[in-house]
Amino acid sequence: MNNTQWEQTGRGQYELKEVSFQDTPADSEKKKDGGKKGRVLYFILGVAAGAAVMLLISKTTFNTPNSLSKATQRKIGLIEGYIDKYFLWEREDEAEADGIYKGIMSSLGDKYAYYYNAEELKRDREDNAGQFSGIGCTIGTDQKTGAPYIVSIMEGYSADKAGIKEGDFFLEVDGEDATAWSSSEVASHVKGKEGTTVDLLMLRDGEELPFTVERVSVAVETVVSRMEDEEKKIGYIRIAEFDQITVSQFKEAKEELEKDGMKGLILDLRSNPGGLVDACADIASQMLPEGMIVYAMSKDGHKSQWTSDGKNEIQIPVVILVNGNTASSAEILTGAMKDYDKATVMGTKTYGKGIIQNTYSLGDGTAIEFTAGQYYLPKDECIHEVGIEPDIEVEADVEAYQADGTDNQLEAARREIEKEIAR
User: Fold this and answer.
1) What residues contact 300, with CB distance under 8 A and at least 6 apart?
2) Phi and psi at residue 328, in whole multiples of 5°?
3) Backbone angles phi, psi at 13, to 5 degrees
4) Same-domain status, 154 and 170
5) What is the reported pTM?
6) What is the mean pLDDT of residues 343-351?
7) Does 273 reside within a domain?
8) Which residues contact 128 (CB under 8 A, 6 or more apart)?
9) 199 has which bridge partners?
10) Same domain (yes/no): 111, 145
C-alpha cells in the first residue's frame, strides 16, 4: 500500500505525495463518532510553523485562493478593537486563537471537523499508540440519538471504580454541555494530565449522575480472546477498536487459538467504533484471500487502496457479531470478510459510517480534521448511512444480559459455528 502526502508546490498549490490512513466514529476516550475514535487518513500538509494557520485576524494576511472577504476582515478588526478597548479582564491570546480556529472548523457543519491544539493532538497520538492518560473507557456516538455515550469500560480503571457504566450518556464534561459533542471532542476533554480529575454529568435510565474521576495512565487492551468451547474448539476474539497496538494483539490471539486447535472463530465487533484503517487492513490481511480490502475516494478523485496478499487466508468458519454501533473500520473488516464469503455476519444492522476524515498537520504541533472522502468495500459498495445487513439477524436480549449475563447473540453465534464446522 502506497503512502501519500500533500506537498506544497507553489503559492496556494498542493500536490499529493504521501498518505497515511486512519479513520474514526469513536475513540478510546476519543473519535473519535466513530469514531475520531476516526482517526482518519493522515495527510501531512507541509507548511511552515509560522504559517501554521491560514487565517486573517486584523493583523495578518490571508494568501490562499479562498481569502476572507473584505467585509469579514473588517468585522474581525472591529471585534478585536471592541475587545481591546472594553473587555473587563485580561484576555489570553492563545485561548482566543484556539477559539477562532475551532470556530472555523465548527462553521463547516461537519460533525467530524475539529481543531486540535498541541496538547489535544499529543493526547490523540498517544491514544492511537495504545497508551494515554484518561479514565479507562471507550466513547462512541449513539446511532439513534447522535449523542456521545460510554461504549465500554476498562475493568479496574478509574471510570470503573467511580461507578460509570456502559451505556451512560454524557451530559456535561467539566461543566460544559457535551450533548452535541462528537465522540472525539468528548474524548479530548476527558483525557488529560495524569493525576488530575474530570467532572462528568452522566445520564442513565433518565437519571442525572455526577462523577469526579481521576485521570490515570491507561494501557489499552483492544483485543480479548479465549477458547469459547474447549471441546468443540470454537475460538473467540473481541476487538474493541482499531489502534496501532491492535494488530499485534490480534495476531498473537489468533496464533494462540490456532495452536490450541481452533476449528471455528467468533469475531466480536459489537460496539466497535472503528479506528485506524491501516490497523484494520493489517488484521483483514490475516484472514482474507489475495485482493482488495477497501479503497477510498477523495474530492479530486484520488484513489487510496488497501489490499491483502492472501498469504494468511483463514480456512475455518468465521462468524462476525455486529450491532448498530459497529462502525467505520469495524464495518470495513465486516464488509470485506462478507464480500469474500469468509464470514457469516450475525446480529443487527451496523452503524453506516463510510466517510473518511483527514487530519492535516499545521506544522506547529497542531492539526485540523474534517471529512474529505468516502470508502468503498471490495464489491464497490459505499455503506455510508446505509450500514451492513447481517446474514442472520439476532436482536440482543438486553433484559437477559442485565439479569444474569446471558448473551443470546453470542450463544447464537456458537450454534452457527457448530453447524458450519459439522458441514
Assistant:
1) none
2) 55, -115
3) -120, 140
4) yes
5) 0.72
6) 98
7) yes
8) 22, 39, 243, 244, 275, 276
9) 212
10) no
Asked whether residue 21 falls in the same domain as residue 33, the answer is yes
Q: Residues 396, 289: one domain?
A: yes
Average pLDDT, whole number, for the chain? 84
Q: Do residues 242 and 305 share a domain?
A: yes
Cell numbers placing 64? 490562499
Count of structural domains, the chain: 3
Q: What is the pLDDT of residues 200-240, one digit of tens each?
A: 999 999 999 999 999 998 877 899 999 999 999 999 999 99
User: Residues 361-405: pLDDT tens digits?
Assistant: 999 999 999 999 999 999 999 999 999 999 999 999 989 988 898
pLDDT above 60: residue 165:
yes
- Looking at 71, 87, 116, which one is the last position of a domain? 116
For residue 231, what is the DSSP state?
A: T
What are the catalytic residues? Answer: 328, 339, 353
CATH code at position 320 = 3.90.226.10
Q: Which of 219, 244, 268 finishes a domain?
A: 219
Which cell numbers in the block locate residue 269? 465487533
Considering the domain architecture, whether residues 251 and 395 belong to the same structural domain is answered as yes
228 Cβ neighbours under 8 A, 6+ residues apart? 234, 235, 236, 266, 410, 414
Domain that holds residue 78: 4-116
Burial 1-38 (b: 16+ CB within 10 A, else e): eeebbbeeeeeeeeeeeebbbbbbbbbbbbbbbbbbbb
Using one digit for the tens of pLDDT, what is the confidence trace for 3-14?
333 333 333 333
**Is 240 found in the same domain as 281?**
yes
Q: What amino acid occupies position 3?
A: N
User: Among the residues of 130-178, which ranges form H helices?
Assistant: 158-162
